[in-house]
Each structure stands twice: as structure tokens, then as C-alpha cells.
Write a structure and sequence with these properties.
The protein is of the alpha/beta class. The chain contains 20 helices and 28 strands. The strands form five sheets. Strands 1-2-3-4-5-6-7-8 form an eight-stranded parallel barrel, surrounded by four helices. The chain has an eight-stranded mixed β-sheet with strand order 21-22-24-23-25-26-27-28, with helices on both faces. Strands 9-10-11-15-14 form a five-stranded antiparallel β-sheet, with no helix packed on it. It is globular, with a radius of gyration of 28 Å.
Length: 750
């Protein structure tokens, strides 16, 4: 009996195993529906299909009014013949619409007429078999620093976001019964997630018939975590009733997302890699099952690795290039739990650079090797060489030709090393870079993405590399680094700041309200480094302590203390350096707006947690260090008011997560709580109304601020003293947190 049961499960397809959860879908090509063996696999495993390419705008209407239905019909007929539901993909996508739709000289009215004719022709043709449509695909910007949340496509430049509204209206007119989806990638990344949420919410408030969100799930074995995926689905289900996982694959390298530029080299597929792939599929499906109330369909993006848009060497699907099931398939089918923890990202290794005497594939390397052998040897001269010939003097007017809409009022960033002219910023928020790497083949700045993986610098006349960000960035501080021929380096022109678990370069975009954290001619407090013994970790640990200007003037006065935590990837230097916490305190005290207090910053033990691994983070080790070791040390060595009523804890991002966890677990320690882009408190999780005097919640306006307002309203309704703050025009970044610290400080210890 047990053997028969096992054989029955083995004979079932995923569609049967998941019949009580959601449909299981697959993206198919022509070979998949005409090859007998592949067609049999489709029929066994899936009850939903998507035409990978054959229903997109350009393949179906390559020229205005000339429709090509042959391939789309073949897939639709296969679905009809086999009783498989068909997802329509996609009606409008910037990357594959016929150029005639937005040709030069096209008016908005002409475009809308063309779009309506195309949408309604294809929707009407397949309305008997297509149960839902991806109406608009990938309309939101990838650039986390962009002020405009929309992708700057030809459609958007012509019509603004109205083209999205029109597309959904035209599709609904053609088939009122079809479910209509907005579809995009990187939906688990906070900036993209929140942009999609805000757009859909706004559209639905106007009556636009958006039924669901399609979450393209182009992930990798390192990311996302279950918590990050769960967070995105949880947010989206507040605004739509239908979520489809539309394009599911998992790479075994570090790349992810829906961008069309990627490596097809993959990785060496060891048994460990196979297990990591299986585990990541298991994690994702565990989250999907949790949300079966809103997830209708999970679609793998291709039948087997042979078909994958990523290439077989990226090993992305549950079926290999011979359409045989992998270990990952077993984990999905049997609903197994992951075997191992999520792997740590491997350190990035630069490609061979053709260094002194070592050669390598790069042209023009020093010494031996490479196709450019002998071209740039030591002593040969030329631009950037070691010989007698000198490079031409740098002239920014030649290197940076004028660009429409960009003001040429660039000045060196305030964070530059002494005497360094680059990087520069202008009054609009653009950043400009110059890197001297005359032998390089490619140089990228990891800032101002513009959908291209960074600001791609270009080699100019003197051998240096120059470039300007694609758009203005948010005001405030930003980390970045330089990638030169695959190696990661810091910009020698600017200072270094600890973030992303390494020393990064930094740039400051001047903020209109920067006065509150400016260095002024006012009395200043002291920031001192202290070393304290941690018995729990068996080591000496470091903290930075800010004492107010009055601290040394009166040896009797005792002070309240704020314990202020950094985010993931940072350390105890962050708040006083990137955050200017000491200057914010000095200025508020000088203005008579706050009662002076001490601020303590220490390392939150966050950085061993890989991005995507937050689900298992408990902060228990840090809780011991903070509550049982650092607080007693500070109380013993500084003039503090050593009681709960005079202590506050706050943190940004992951430091907010720690604050949330520790304040709830240790209610006897702190009386004031602050979460800065670090989540929210709910009345239900606070056991005693008397345990907290003041709760502060904040985020940037680009981080889904509705959640802050809702949480604060709920806390106030339950009788808590709560305050919410939204930093206008900013995202998950230090200007958001500087503003939040200032606002919170006004209400502490009152």
C-alpha cells in the first residue's frame, strides 16, 4: 500500500500536487508544443501556459495593420485541445512593440489609436482560451535614485502614465471577463516594490481595471529571502485580489532580475549548487503556499534549461536541458523544507587584467599576453604609459559636452579628498565622475543606475573615463564604488564610508534643508570612542559616545541616553559620519529645541546576515551585548540617569528590526522606541501600555508611507503616544534618517 501510494505521487504532475493551492504554469515556445515528448511533459505537469514570445506586440503586429497569428494560434490551439488555461503575455512592453507604434512624429492620439487597435484585435481573437492578460509589462524604473518612478520609455515620454490607464481600459473593453495584470521584475526590491504598489493603488483609485500584479520571479540562490518575498506579497495583496508569479527561474550565479544584459556563463554545477537551487525553490514555494488566498498561478519561465532565456549553464529551472527533473523538482513536488541555510555570496574576483608581466585576455596589457601584446609596455609612452610622452591636460569642456536639460554648474562634492575635483554634483542633483584608468576596457560607477547596472563611463581624449548620472539623484548621502574590468575599487577622489559590509565611496547631493545637520558656529559636543569588554562574545567591542556641549561644564548633571543603531552592511561609525547625528544634536541644543542627552552607537552584529537571510535573524546575541554589557558600561562610565525612564532605543532599517525585537523582549530597558525605515509596532505585540512612553515610526515618501500612517493611527487609537514622520522625496537613504532623527529628538525625554 505504501509503495503504491508513492508510485501514485510520482506519476502525478505538479499541477496535481498543487491543485489545492494554485495553478502551475509554464512559458512555452513552438518546439514545446510540437515535439511529442516535450508536449507530453507540458500536459503532465501544467494546467496553465504562457506564450513566451509569440503573443507579444511586435511578433503579432510587426507592421501597422499586418497581423501575424500563425505561432500564437499554434500555442492557443494546443491549449484548447488539451484543456490548459492560457495566460496572455503581453499587450504593451517597451522592449517588443513595433517601432511604427511610436515612430518619430507620432502624436499621443495616433499612438492611442494604434494601441487600442492592437490590444483589442489580439484580446478578441483569443478571448475563448486566454483567462488573463499581462496588459502592461515593466513600466517602472529600475533606478532607485530616480525622481520619476516610471521607466523613461517612448510610450511614457509621449503620454506619461496615462498610456498604462488606456491599455487596461482597452483590454477590459475587449474582454470584460479576463483578469488584467500589471507585470514587472525585481518586485521584491523595496524601491521597485513600492513604486509598483503606489502606481497600482493610484490607478485603482481612479477606477482603472487592474485586477492583479504579476511578479516576475527571476531570482538566484542567494536572494531573495523568504522574509523579503513574503513582505512584497503581503504588501501587494492589500491593493489587488490576484497575484501571479509570472516568470519563475532561479540562477545559480549572483545575477537576478529581468534585465536583458546578463552572463550566460553560469557556474560550475556541483552537488552543493544543486542543493542550494533546490533549497531556494523550496523557500519560495513555502511562501507561495502561505499566500494561496491571493496567488492563483505560479509560472516557470520555460520548460527546461535548454529553452531558458538565461541559457542552460545558468541551470535555472527544475528540469535540465534534457527535460529531466532535477533535485529542485523533487523539493517542489514533495513540498520539502530547505536542507541548508541560504548560502553566503561568494567574494567577487576581478577578471585577469594583463598586469605587469602576467598577461591575460585584455588588450593592451603591460608586459606579455593578450591580443594587444607589446602595445603598451613599460617605457613605450603614449597616453597613460610610463614613457616620456605626457597625456594632454584635462579639459572638462572637451570631456563633458553639454547635455540638454543638465545645468553646467557642477562643483566638487563636499566629501571629496582635499584638492580633488571629482566627483562633482550640480544644483539639480546630477553627479559627474572622472576616473584615471587609461588601460581599462570598461569602467562603471555603481550609482545613478538608469536601468544599465550603473553609470557607464566613457573613455575621453586624455585616456581618463568620464560620465554623468542618467538622472538627478535624491538629495543627501549615497554610497557607491567603481567597477574596472570586473574588479571593485573605491573612487580615489572621495572619502570612504563603511556600508554594504565594506568601505565604500560616498557622495553628498546637497539638500535644500541641509541647515539642520550643517557644521555651524555653535557649541559642539564630543564624540569619543570607547572600548568595553563583552563577556558574551569574549572580546573587546567598540562604541561611539556623543556627549552634549554642556557635559563637561557641569560635573553634577546626569543625562538621558539614546542608543542608536545602524543598518545592515554598516557599523558603529555610520550615525556620526554618514548620519551627522552629533551635528543634528548640537544644532537642536543650540536652538533650545531639545533637552541635551547622550547618544551611543555600537555595532549591531548585523553583517554576517546575508541579504535574503533576515528570516532567521533573532538579534539575541546583540541583545546580550547591548542590554547586559554596553548599557551597564555606559551607566558606570558616564553621568547617565541610569533607569528605564531615561533610556531610548532607535535604529534605521535592520537596526530598526533589532530595536523592535529587543524593546519588546526587554521591556524593562527602554521607555522610548524609534523605528526609522525599520518596520512598525502594533498594539497587539506590546504587552503593557505602561511599558513605553513614546513610539516614533518613520520612512521616506518612496518607501510605502501608508504603512507608517496606518500603524501610528492604530497605536493612537489603542492609547499609545505615537508619532509618524515621512521624509518627502526620499527613499531608503540617509537623508530620510537624518530628518527622522531630528524629528524624533524633539519628543525624547520630555
Amino acid at each position: 500500500m505504501a509503495l503504491a501510494g508513492c508510485m501514485s505521487v510520482q506519476a502525478q504532475g505538479l499541477k496535481d500536487v498543487y491543485k489545492d493551492y494554485f495553478m502551475i504554469g509554464v512559458a512555452v515556445n513552438q518546439r514545446n508544443v510540437t515535439n511529442a515528448e516535450q508536449a507530453a511533459l507540458v500536459k503532465k505537469e501544467f494546467n496553465s501556459m504562457t506564450a513566451e514570445n509569440d503573443m507579444k506586440p511586435e511578433p503579432t503586429e510587426p507592421r501597422e495593420g499586418e497581423f501575424n497569428w500563425e505561432n500564437a494560434d499554434r500555442i492557443a490551439n494546443f491549449a484548447r485541445a488539451n484543456g490548459i488555461k492560457l495566460r496572455g503575455h503581453t499587450l504593451m512592453w517597451h522592449s517588443q512593440i513595433g517601432r511604427w507604434m511610436t515612430a518619430e512624429g507620432t502624436t499621443k492620439e495616433q499612438f492611442y489609436a494604434r494601441m487600442k487597435n492592437h490590444i483589442q484585435a489580439i484580446v478578441n481573437r483569443y478571448k475563448d482560451v486566454v483567462y488573463c492578460w499581462d496588459v502592461v509589462n515593466e513600466a517602472m524604473s529600475d533606478d532607485a535614485n530616480a525622481t520619476d518612478p516610471y521607466r523613461q520609455s517612448a510610450m511614457y515620454r509621449l503620454c506619461g502614465d496615462e498610456f498604462i490607464e488606456k491599455a487596461f481600459q482597452y483590454a477590459h473593453e475587449a474582454d470584460p471577463k479576463a483578469l488584467l495584470f500589471y507585470n514587472d521584475y525585481s518586485t521584491v526590491d523595496p524601491h521597485k516594490r513600492d513604486r509598483i504598489y503606489n502606481m497600482v493603488k493610484k490607478m485603482k483609485a481612479k477606477g482603472i481595471p487592474i485586477d492583479g500584479i504579476g511578479m516576475q520571479a527571476h531570482y538566484n540562490i542567494y536572494y531573495p529571502s523568504e522574509a523579503r518575498l513574503d513582505s512584497a506579497i503581503t504588501l501587494f495583496k492589500t491593493v489587488v485580489k490576484h497575484i501571479h508569479i509570472t516568470e519563475f527561474d532561479i540562477r545559480v550565479n549572483e545575477e537576478m532580475g529581468g534585465g536583458l544584459q546578463f552572463s550566460r556563463e553560469g557556474a560550475t554545477v556541483t552537488d552543493s549548487v544543486k542543493q542550494y537551487l533546490a533549497d531556494q525553490y523550496a523557500r519560495c514555494f513555502r511562501v507561495f503556499r502561505k499566500h494561496k488566498d491571493v496567488i492563483d498561478c505560479v509560472t516557470f519561465w520555460n520548460l527546461g534549461d535548454r529553452d531558458s532565456w538565461l541559457g542552460a549553464r545558468n541551470y535555472p529551472l527544475p528540469w535540465d536541458e534534457n527535460y529531466q527533473p532535477k533535485l529542485a523538482y523533487e523539493y517542489i513536488r514533495d513540498m520539502k523544507a530547505p536542507k541548508w541555510d541560504m548560502p553566503a555570496r561568494p567574494p567577487r574576483q576581478p577578471r585577469p587584467q594583463g598586469g605587469f608581466g602576467q598577461g591575460g585576455p585584455r588588450q593592451g596589457g603591460f608586459g606579455q599576453g593578450g591580443p594587444g601584446q607589446g602595445q603598451r609596455r613599460r617605457g613605450q609612452g603614449g597616453p597613460g604609459g610610463f614613457g616620456q610622452q605626457q597625456r594632454a591636460p584635462f579639459n572638462p569642456n572637451l570631456a563633458f559636452p553639454e547635455q540638454s536639460g543638465i545645468k553646467e554648474d557642477f562643483v566638487p562634492s563636499e566629501l571629496n579628498q582635499p584638492g580633488q575635483q571629482y566627483p562633482q554634483v550640480n544644483s539639480q542633483g546630477y553627479a559627474r565622475f572622472r576616473i584615471e584608468a587609461p588601460e581599462a576596457q570598461a569602467v562603471t560607477v555603481g550609482l545613478g543606475l538608469g536601468g544599465q547596472g550603473g553609470t557607464q563611463l566613457k573613455k575621453t581624449y586624455d585616456g581618463s573615463w568620464v560620465g554623468t548620472t542618467a538622472g538627478p539623484m535624491d538629495e543627501g548621502f549615497h554610497y557607491y564604488h567603481i567597477t574596472i574590468d570586473g574588479g571593485t575599487f573605491n573612487d580615489p577622489g572621495t572619502g570612504n564610508f563603511y556600508g554594504s559590509t565594506r568601505w565604500e565611496s560616498g557622495i553628498e547631493i546637497p539638500a535644500k534643508d541641509k541647515d539642520f545637520y550643517a557644521m555651524k558656529n555653535v557649541p559642539h559636543g564630543k564624540v569619543q570612542q570607547v572600548l568595553f569588554w563583552s563577556e558574551s562574545t569574549k572580546q573587546c567591542r567598540r562604541a561611539f559616545v556623543y556627549t552634549p556641549p554642556t557635559y563637561d561644564k557641569d560635573a553634577k548633571t546626569k543625562y538621558p541616553v539614546l542608543y542608536l543603531q545602524h543598518g545592515w552592511g554598516e557599523d558603529e561609525t555610520a550615525w556620526m559620519t554618514q548620519g551627522h547625528a552629533n551635528l543634528i544634536m548640537d544644532n537642536l541644543i543650540a536652538e533650545g529645541k531639545i533637552k541635551p542627552f547622550i547618544v551611543v552607537c555600537t555595532y549591531g552584529m548585523t553583517n554576517n546576515v546575508q541579504i535574503g537571510g533576515l528570516g532567521g535573524f533573532t538579534a539575541q546575541d546583540f541583545e546580550k551585548v547591548l542590554c547586559d554589557e554596553l548599557v551597564p558600561y555606559v551607566d558606570a562610565n558616564f553621568r547617565t540617569i541610569a533607569k528605564k525612564e531615561s533610556r531610548a532605543m532607535a535604529g534605521l532599517s535592520m537596526g530598526g528590526m533589532e530595536t523592535h525585537t529587543i524593546t519588546l523582549r526587554r521591556p524593562e530597558m527602554f521607555n522610548y522606541y524609534g523605528l526609522l525605515s525599520g518596520g512598525v509596532y502594533t498594539p497587539e505585540e506590546i504587552k503593557d501600555k505602561n511599558q513605553v512612553k513614546y513610539i516614533f515610526l518613520s520612512c521616506g515618501s518612496k518607501e510605502g508611507p501608508d504603512r507608517i500612517k496606518s500603524a501610528v493611527d492604530a497605536l493612537k487609537a489603542a492609547g499609545y503616544n505615537a508619532e509618524g514622520h515621512v521624509s518627502e522625496g526620499t527613499a531608503h537613504e540617509f537623508l530620510t534618517w537624518r530628518r527622522a532623527l531630528r524629528q524624533m529628538a524633539l519628543s525624547l525625554f520630555k
